[in-house]
Each structure stands twice: as structure tokens, then as C-alpha cells.
Structure prediction request, 425 residues.
Amino acid sequence: MKQPLAFRMRPESLDEVIGQQHLIGPGQVLRRCVEEGRLFSMIFYGPPGTGKTTLASVLAREMNLPCRFFNAVTGNKKDLDTIFEESRFYEGLVLVIDEVHRLNKDKQDLLLPHVENGHLILIGATTANPALAINPAIRSRCHLFEIKALETADIITALNRAAASEKGLQGQVTLDPDAAELIARYSGGDIRYALNVLELCAIASDEPVLKKELVVRYAQRPVSGVDKNEDGHYDAVSAFQKSIRGSDVNASLYYLARLIEAGDMDSIERRLLVIAYEDIGLGNPAALARTLDAIDAAKRVGFPEGMIPLSVAVIDLALSPKSRSACEAIHSAMEEVAAGSVPVPRYLRYTPTGLSEQDRYPYDRPDLWHRIQYLPDALKTKVFYQPQTSSAYEKQLAANDQALKQIRRSSDLASLKQAKKPRQQ
Prediction:
């Protein structure tokens, strides 16, 4: 059976690799490694279909080094033992490990000594963030390099090259520019996906020129770049919150749509609640309750209809006055506590001992409560809450706060109690 187009078009030299010029361009690190004849253990991380494994095999080929492949999920100890035995006959054997972040501890224990002594040159490939997903023992022995999603122009170059190449479609078809651009846009930077679409359209077409209409008919839905188990998911979640914080309603809706496309209601719910309290907060307290209602409605009806109440909440939050004053206030207080706790004043303790009745907290004098000093003496001048005035509501809070600051608070409860108790109305 004929091999897939994406497999046949795998580059065999650095000059055939499309994109990644930050690593393989003139004077860049991987190009210099080849020129100097020195290769180190490294981990390539980036989105699917960007050529991580291909680049690893190209480096080995360019340097005339033997290369073996191992999948961290499906490979077993016996496979590793065979590779270790083989490495004894070479000065440098390149071991390319797909899904390296899934390498379990037993396999790591077997692998580490061979990487340490240089018998193996490990090149790991992963779609996960290596700082979070790669075991520190592996990570400390490898250089980390990001493999970036390809640009639209890169994908178009790859498509046209595959259509004309002897290894590819041998010039039997050509791509209309609009069709090439549509495939590239659908691919989301995944060259494998783009070549698969090209191959399918070439098989389905009776015409020598592939048109945009054919791509629309046969291409799968566009690659979203959001997978609940990979970094693209966390990038979209991060962009979602930042867009709402920045009051960009259109970007907020776009990233909401990406998370809905991934079917990740859990992340949407958590993030909307965090956004409501962290970024909007006292700027629009009513929006907090409306957000809870929208989430509840979305969960009750489910997707796809659930996207409607969610969009209402996102528009509301994105265009709402923002105030991070509450968030910043509690962070400031937490920093103070982390620096060391200060004893609670005796008159505020749950069971105060050794205090006269005059020095005890006056439960029966609400008229005095706002005049009592509640912070310990060492912290009595500390200010954690700094009001923002982005909304009428917080302006009123700020005014209340300012009025209360004009009242002198005291830790001398006996003297406070000497004030005349107001008459009950």
C-alpha cells in the first residue's frame, strides 16, 4: 500500500525543513550543531504536526548518526534493552522518544544512566509544557527547544511543494491559491493535517486544479488547537481571562468559542467565576450573581444551547467596569501574614484572660465598635484595601472608607467605654 503523502514528504535535510528558522536558520543553534558535528540531548516541545519527530530524524541524518525511535506510551522495557545493547556498538546513537512526557519512572530509571554517560543522545518530542510535564531528572539532562506552529505562508509552501514533488503528487494536480490558503487556515499550523487534506482532495478531484469548493466539501472541520489534555487548552484559557480583563469583547467570545468547541465546561465555569471575582469584583458586584446564573443555565441545558447564556455572561463581564481592588487587598494581607504573624490584641481574643471588665470587648456597645482598633499595634497603620473608582458602587465604598478613616480608633477600651452610651430610640 502506498504510504501517506505526509509521510512521503518528510524532509531529509535541514534545507527541506519548513519553518523553525529560530532553530535551523543561518547561525542558529541547531544549524550550528550540525556544522560543528556536535549533538546534545534535547527535548522538542510544541503543537501537534509541527515536525518535532521529523526534525529529530533530520538532525541524526545530517550528522550520519544511527537513529532509533521509541514511543513512551506503547514501548516497553524489552524495546529499551535492545536499544541499549545496540548503543554499545556506536559512539553516538540518537534515540527519539515520542510522547516523552509519558515516560514512566521504570523506563526513566533504565534510560537515565545511558543519557548521562553519553552512550545515547536523547531527543524527546512532546506537546506538553516540559517545565510542568517532564520529569526533572530527564529535563535537567536535556536542552529545551520550542517547535512553533507554522505560519500560513509556510503551510502554503509545503502544499505546493508536495503537489509538485516526485515524492508527492508528481505534478498531477495543482492548487488554486484560494484553496491552498483555505487548507492552511484550516490546519492551524499543523502541516500533517494540511497534507492529509491535500491528498484527500487530490483523490476526490476529477480536475487538475484543486478548487476552494473541493476543500470545503472534503476537509474536516478546522483544527482548533484546544485539547483538554494539552498546552493549547491552557493557552486558550489564559487568553480567555486576559481578553475579558482587557475589555475586548470580540476576543473574549472567540476564546469562549474555542473552549466550547473543546467541550470543556469545567474550565469555562471555573474561569468565569475567577474572572467575575478577580477582575470585575467590586466594579460591578451584580455581575457576579448574573455570572453564576448563566453558568447554572448553561449546565442545565448543556451544549450546544448552553453557549448562549455563557455568551451573555462573557459580554457582560468584558464590558463591565473592572476592579481588582479586592483581589489585590487579600494578596497584600496574605503577604503580610507570610512575613510573620503578630499576636491578636488581647481584647479581641476568643477567651481573653487577665482582663478587667472595662478592658474587655464591649459586646453591648455597638456605638463603639467602629472606634476600636482591630489591627495589632505593629500593623495599625497598614492599608491593604486601595479602592478603585471604576464604578459608582466602589466610589461609594471608597467614600465610606474615607469617612471611617477620619474616626480615631483606639486600643484603650476602658477610655472608649467612658463615652456616654446613646439612648435607645
In short: The first helix runs from residue 5 to 8.
